[in-house]
Amino acid sequence: MVYLKEINPFALGVFLFVTFFFSLSLFSQPSKELPPPNTQGKPSAEESQLPSTEQPSQQESTEPPPENHPPTEGAHPEEISPTPPSETAPTVPPSGPEAKLPPNLPILLPISVTAQEELPEEENVVSTNEETGVLGPAMKIIETPRTVQVVTRQEMNTINAQSVNDLAAFTPGVNPTQMTGSPVAEPVIRGLPATTYRNGMLVGFSQSAQWGPLMNMNAYDNLDVVTGPVSIVYGPQELAGGFANEVTKQPYFDKFRGNASYTVGMYSTNMWNIDLGGPVIKDKLAYRFDYFGQDGYAPYNYYDGAYLQRQCFYLNIGAKPYENLSIDFNTELDLNHLNTVAGLNRPTQSLIDNDLYQTGTWAGWYGPPGVFHPGIGTAPPGAGYAVNWGPLVPISRRTNLFANPENATNQTYYVAQAIENLKINDNLSLVNNSLFEYFSTLIDQAIPSTFWAILPSGYDFDDRLELRAQFDTLPGKKETDSLKETAEESTKAHSLLLHHMIDAGIEFRYFSDTEYSGVWHSPINIWNLTQPLTYSNFSPIVSFAAATSPLFQNPYLTDIPVPGHPGMYYNVFNYLSTADTFSTLSPFYQHQINFTDQWSLMLAGRMNAFFVQASPPPGTPAEISQAAPSFGLPPYTSTSMNIVQPELTISPSYKPFPWMTSYFTFFYGQTTLLSQFGSFAPEFPSAYYHQNNFLYEVGTKFSLLHDKLFLGISGYYQTGYIPAQVIPGGPIATTQIAIKGAQLNANYQPNKNFWLNFGYAFIAGQELWQGLPLGPLASQPYSSSVAKLYGLPVDPLVNESPLNYPFIGFPHNYGNIMATYKFDNGLGISLWALAESGNFIFYTYSTRIPSWYTLNARIFYSSKRWEASLYLYNITNEHYWLPGAPGFSAARFMNYDYIVPQLPFWIQGSLTIFF
């Protein structure tokens, strides 16, 4: 019932506006009739980054078409015209079954039918006939039994996309998030983290969409955004609401070309990019190089003390040594230095509605049983801190908790990928995809919250070998029957022909890293942000002696120095700190059978065998584990796990018309809980490696108006487990969730001048704590205004009641629309808008972020040699907020500690030179 109340009238109005706008476009006519675009589509996600061999064109074919050659799929009767008399085909001597034909009957050449305007690949945004390999072999998007949104390079350039949050402009299932100041490495889709892949291979080192390396949007030709669990061929990481496949930039085999661009804007935005490539050996060897530099970006620099500096180098080398062999190698090095945005503490309704901040100074801390200790100190879990509250005062929206030189994040990320495609024959190919990653990061957030996350070095190697085959079979047919077959029998048999597409293989992965994390005592609400943040009020580190004293009685609360990083500390038995090495061996098999032109069935299965060795990270004192049993806690020792996880998916599809496909998808699979950088901690019990996930999805896709309009509608129900923050040594690290929703995606492009994307998503999720011994952890289970009113402690670290809770910090309704019109003289304008309904930031469901929208624009001029763009963001200067963490994130327990005001109106401009 809560969900129905959350259907916001404004979001509904946006959806009706989209429908009205679209209806008008249906009746509008272009200024002149243009030839329709290409129906052949783009290469698949994996094939697009492989150099393809030359294929003869349709006009060059010398084979006669079959008798009664049918119209091209998707064609319309008024577009089909017979071959003119002057172009009548020459006669050919009859043979085989054609011997019964009159001797001089002319054979018609193939009929050339077009259903779309012939647009350059990079200018076509309609998904109808585009091919993608997100489920393995290349399939048209309209025939893929999932909701797929291909974000093209053109669309990314339209908004100058630089972060995963920008994907919300194209896919309504994506929602932007702040993640309580942690780097956001992956998009959030359908209420859950989205696993990221690079040309079909898992990008590791991330958990709950955070911690991992930042995406380099400039290295991609396009991004395939898919909703629902990851495909059987790609393999799982954790419970996912979807996945994003990075299709990296490909070399230029035709000629040398490239571009250089520079972007400058408000709040010290400063970015530059050079992208070039060309052939080295004609038709045999080519390259592509991209360099991106950044020294400031408005969504960071707007906030006090925040910044983003990047140096990203990308190189792709493509080779075609033989006609049937292609090799693609890409490599990238990213150096990122940043201080993230944490926003304001003490979120209250007065702060959200009127920018009025609750002042007050730290007075002391509490110890058991509720004894007050004045002055500086660290409270044990469940006790909290005392504040001398002051008045509400206006505060700048640029105020940032992390505005201190102590706070910084450094990332070094290197990746190399090699893909070999061997075409054995027209129906059989062998593909090997290898990926190597190195990642090192240091996240220092010592002020105002005692949080450190350190990965000195991590290594990931992944290799997948696939055999792809396609063939036809005829049920009940014997080989000897072919000589007796008549033409009539042949026609009947053709209607019973089964077409098979198989993708089978095995994947091997090896991962090794060492992780340190400390986060349990974070008294964020003791800080008064109207005064400078200083070390003098820092919550003291807890020693082993203090952790084992009667005050704490938990050795796992010991703050341990991180080796080689003075001034930084970590904890153990927090499901994050670990020294881990694991390998996986995963055989998989996917089989699609097309029974007729209308019915098809996809069956796929995978088994993931994990071999895990996890230990306490180096530097962990043995006395901590030795002391634990005396406090009723389990010891903290090395573990060895061998686990097998199954995956299964079944997807029948029905295509009643060439322009309509309906599908049902069932998915079952087991995933694992992950440490902060995608590994496993030694305290993980066996149950954490066997978390059941289910998906039930139905959908229908339409290709209308001569393939110029694509519509995708889907509804789904998904269950699984999400991480829950725990006090070190605590018993609960996951909880089950259930998510239901519906989604609409659409692309419309009537001609080369105009294109339109729009969508709507409804998402409702619940945390299912009913029946468990404890409910979700809360850093502070009430707002600071309530703490002031009743004299309650701040940041006590307590568990809520074990009930079922709708997702917090997560809207139910999302809408997006994007329209571009480009005149023939090169001048153009793009408009796009995002909208979200309101949401409650915590389990009390009392403090609420209202519904919001933003309207944005790009005005540009393009010529053969240069392009200039002016970007206008949040044109109406909308006053809106994002919660510290969305509903699935483990950091949601701190949503009464963080809230982030979003940027007001701001501008940036770009100049690009083509050569």
From TrEMBL:
Membrane topology note: Multi-pass membrane protein
* Principal localisation: membrane
Q: Where is there biased composition of kind Pro residues?
A: 82-96
Q: Where are the transmembrane segments?
A: none
The source's superkingdom equals Bacteria
Q: Which Pfam families match?
A: Plug
One GO cellular-component annotation of the UniProt record comes to: cell outer membrane
Q: Which molecular-function annotation in GO is an example for this chain? A: siderophore uptake transmembrane transporter activity
Q: Which InterPro entries match?
A: Beta-barrel_TonB_sf, Plug_dom, Plug_dom_sf, TonB-dep_rcpt-like
Q: Where is this region: Disordered?
A: 30-105
**Which keywords does this Swiss-Prot/TrEMBL entry list?**
Cell outer membrane, Ion transport, Iron, Iron transport, Membrane, Receptor, Signal, Transmembrane, Transmembrane beta strand, Transport
Q: What is this protein called?
A: Outer membrane receptor protein involved in Fe transport
Output the Gene3D superfamilies linked to this UniProt entry: TonB-dependent receptor, beta-barrel domain, TonB-dependent receptor, plug domain
Cellular localization per UniProt: Cell outer membrane
Query: In this protein, which residues make up the domain named TonB-dependent receptor plug?
Result: 141-241
